[in-house]
Design goal:
It contains 14 helices and ten strands. With 418 residues, it is an alpha/beta fold. Helix 5 packs across helix 6 and helix 9 crosses helix 10. The longest helix has 25 residues. It is globular. The chain starts with a helix and ends in a 6-residue tail after the last helix. The structure holds L-rhamnitol (RNT) and zinc ion. Zinc ion binds next to loops. L-rhamnitol (RNT) binds next to loops.
């Protein structure tokens, strides 16, 4: 068989440089990536009808946006059928599922409002991650939530995030796997603020109050995501990088780095090693910023590969919680999800097929010409043959063959949606 023959040859090539392709695939099979539910419906959710706010934007109006939980679940199922391995599903609080009579506001949500998602996850062996939704809601006043000067606003959101901790704990209990619960707030100012300290102080106090409720820290891994700016929030964000790293470090929670949330020439790949020296566990949102925090689909590009290398060669696969965070409404959403997820896996496989120890030794011996030479030669190694074999082994489509199925799905399912 073609794939097998190519693989056998590729295996030999990698063996010559001391790389065990079998071991690489075994390791990759176990890496669970958190698939973000929000690519399927342009971050709208089911608990409100308003626009997406909070300084984030999904652009495009490609047909087929999932409008109901049933549609979103059907789409996710289809995506999962094209992705090797078993993963985690990342939900946002705004994806609560209400029967008409039982609608409650975000400060009142309970595990029961996510019961269909828990069933969905359990039936498929998926883990669950969670996010409080502090945007697209009337209680976001003047672009502020947990840092608002208005106590009523702060309290509403404190109760929301506390409710989310209880839901996350329920997810962990039901799935038997820890739930990463990521807090991101949109809070900030469009123009130069008069006071940078007070909002951050209020945010800090809100977080203290949130984390003061009892919960099992081995089940709920609370993370805090930083950001440098948002649309309409260009001059100042309350949850800056320094704020979140310091807060996470002092309070035993995880810092979360989104690679769209830094200045344009700053790269998350260079930050991971430093963070690993000071935190047991860290979390990532892998995305692709094009000129700004645009949340384009993740590609098999230099930075994604470099991020993957940092996770793999620092022996940090169990310590780095990988989640995807992009939302492109301008192309087929199923394809967007599939491309991004497969690319994250390809990047990890690429890292696993790198003779990392050999390269590190060359660096330590000062043989930097060889480091460059080998890193460049590796780029044309038969990586694709191993990836195809991995897909075949995991009974998912090889190469571009999956796209035919997506086209059929688009014609028979997506284009029928209003
Ligand atoms: C926004 C953050 C945040 C969101 C999701 C929907 O800039 O990246 O993670 O994208 O929570
Ligand atoms: Zn993010």
């Amino acid at each position: 068989m073609k794939t097998q023959a190519y693989y056998d040859w590729a295996k030999e090539q990698y063996e010559k440089i001391g790389v065990d392709t079998e071991q690489a695939m075994k390791t990759l099979e176990k890496i669970r990536i958190s698939l973000h539910c929000w690519q399927g419906d342009d971050v709208v959710g089911f608990d409100q009808k308003g626009p997406l706010t909070g300084g984030i934007q999904a652009t495009g109006n490609y047909p087929g946006r999932a409008r109901t939980p049933e549609e979103l679940m059907k789409d996710i199922d289809f995506v999962l059928s094209m992705i090797p391995g078993t993963h985690k599903l990342n939900l946002h609080a705004c994806y609560a599922i209400f029967n008409d009579e039982e609608y409650v506001d975000r400060d009142q949500i309970e595990p029961k409002h996510f019961e269909p998602w828990v069933q969905f996850a359990k039936e498929r062996g998926l883990g669950l991650d969670f996010n409080p939704t502090l945007f697209s809601h009337p209680m976001v006043k003047d672009n502020l939530t947990l840092s608002s000067p208005d106590k009523e606003v702060r309290d509403f959101w404190i109760h929301h995030v506390q409710a989310c901790i209880r839901i996350s704990e329920y997810f962990a209990e039901q799935t038997g796997e820890p739930c990463v619960m990521n807090i991101w707030i949109p809070d900030g100012y469009k123009d130069i603020p008069a006071d940078r300290l007070a909002p951050r102080k209020r945010f800090k106090e809100s977080l203290d109050q949130i984390l003061s409720i009892p919960y099992d820290r081995s089940k709920v891994l609370v993370s805090l995501e930083s950001k440098v700016f948002g649309i309409g929030l260009e001059s100042y964000t309350v949850g800056s990088s320094e704020f979140t790293i310091n807060y996470a470090s002092k309070n035993g929670i995880l810092p979360l780095m989104d690679n769209g949330h830094y200045h344009p020439t700053e790269v998350v790949s260079d930050k991971i090693s430093s963070m690993l020296l000071f935190f047991d566990q860290i979390a990532l949102h892998v995305t692709r910023p094009v000129r700004w925090d645009s949340d384009h689909v993740v590609l098999f590009d230099d930075e994604t590969r470099e991020i993957a290398k940092e996770i793999v060669r620092n022996d940090a696969i169990d310590r780095v919680k990988i989640g995807l965070d992009f939302f492109d409404a301008s192309i087929n959403r199923i394809a967007a999800w599939t491309i991004g997820m497969r690319n994250m896996q390809k990047a990890l496989l690429y890292a696993l097929l790198t003779p990392n120890q050999k390269l590190a030794n060359l660096q330590d011996e000062g043989r930097l010409t060889e480091v460059m030479m080998l890193q460049e030669e590796l780029k044309t190694y038969p990586f694709g043959a191993v990836w195809d074999y991995f897909c075949e082994k995991n009974q998912v489509p090889c190469g571009e063959t999956w796209y035919e199925q997506v086209k059929t799905y688009e014609n028979t399912v997506l284009r029928k949606r209003g």
